[in-house]
Amino acid sequence: MKRKYQVIGIFILLLCSVIYDFPRTTQETIETEPLSYVTLEGAFLKNGKYEFTGHKYVRDIVLEVGVKDNANLNALSLEQEVIDESRLYLPLQQETCISLNHASQEELMTLKGIGEKTAQKIIDYRQNQPFLRLEDIMNISGIGEKTYLRLRDSLCL
To answer: pTM of the prediction?
Structure first.
């Protein structure tokens, strides 16, 4: 009788060993790209949070979302890659638009709150690197978010 239980025990161990070593199906993990977003403001047909995956250029978002007929596309650098969690502001077309990359000191001084020294700072900045976004004007000392928000409708690249 004792021998019978030993044989049964060995058989159960062998069976467990075979089952344990049997190749298991592996679950494939699907890696998804993280979701990015940009906040659209101004003359876009859809304002607010725009979510996307992968890399997008401003041109891609303009084509996908659409813009109003009187949008000032000169205010955007269409070939620039969109930065995650950034803002894109597209102003409406104005009669006069002051170009951050091309305006003279006198033209820059026509903007409310921009004097001779600040206009010169803008020119010095663009000589080192061009403005790629309207928001880059906030990199100039003395120009903060409030000033940017006040001027952005009058600016273009």
So the answer is: 0.65
